[in-house]
């Protein structure tokens, strides 16, 4: 049976759009798929190669319709710290690594503090390198009221974040910060959350640090709800599009 399960949704969606623009008589070929940047789909598409496009379109429509069905929603307690004998909460560090392992398309992280990222963020880098997952991180910049050049100050903070937490090299996440934090020590990016594939969200009191993930007493919620994930992501993307969060290039 054709297996699309490990393929990011964006690829069959892009192929479907391309096929819909082709004459029905034209066959789906490996050359066409590769020229469209869809070579990763070839193993799944092998049974359909050299068949008319109008035979492949219904299959792709069915795959995408199934993915667009709302998943069963659930909320579970996530916990860092001593575990009571009757406790049923999942461990924060374990949950975060599992989420990185599940990611197939995108990860968005909002965080206040990051330390020991070689351990905490290694799963994210692996998802980016092996599966082409895109990643954005909004991080807290230490306040520096009256900084002479905001962009330079933010770039130094971003380089520090990567130097201390991203020893893996490419690919790198996109980094964003709140420009107000470079002007005032009383304004902070204090949120701690992760959103994966617009389906699952971790909202927690735990920083992306060793103590936050494994030592302190922290509580959070693992929310498997595409509707909630899209809503939470929209809040962050709205800040980016509105200019309230700025992208910073740490490697310049």
Would you kindly provide a written description of the structure presented here, covering whatever features stand out?
It is built from ten helices and nine strands. It is an alpha/beta fold and 252 residues long. It has a nine-stranded mixed β-sheet with strand order 2-1-8-7-6-3-4-5-9, sandwiched between helices. β6 and β7 form a beta hairpin.
Which labels suit this protein?
9-stranded mixed β-sheet, Endonuclease, Chain A, 2 domains, single chain, alpha/beta, 10 helices, 252 residues
Strand content: 15-25%
**Order of H and E elements:** HHHHEEHEHHEHEEEHEHE
Using the coordinates above, name the CATH class of the largest domain: Alpha Beta
Instruction: Categorize the overall geometry.
Output: globular
How are the strands of the biggest sheet laid out side by side?
A: 2-1-8-7-6-3-4-5-9
> pLDDT under 50 segments (min length 5)?
none
Q: How far is it from the N-terminal to the C-terminal residue, by CA?
A: 47 Å
Class per helix and strand makeup: alpha/beta
The percent range for helix content is: 25-40%
- Major pleated sheet: 9 strands, mixed
Oligomeric state, counting identical vs distinct chains: single chain
Total domain modules:
2
Give a quick summary of the entry.
This protein has 252 residues and is α/β, with parallel strands linked by helices.
Secondary-structure blueprint:
Elements: H1 10-20, H2 30-35, H3 42-45, H4 53-67, E1 74-80, E2 90-91, H5 92-102, E3 106-111, H6 117-120, H7 122-131, E4 134-139, H8 150-165, E5 174-177, E6 193-196, E7 200-204, H9 210-215, E8 218-224, H10 226-241, E9 246-248
Parallel strand pairs: 1-2, 3-4, 4-5
Antiparallel strand pairs: 1-8, 3-6, 5-9, 6-7, 7-8
Helix pairs in contact: 1-4, 5-7
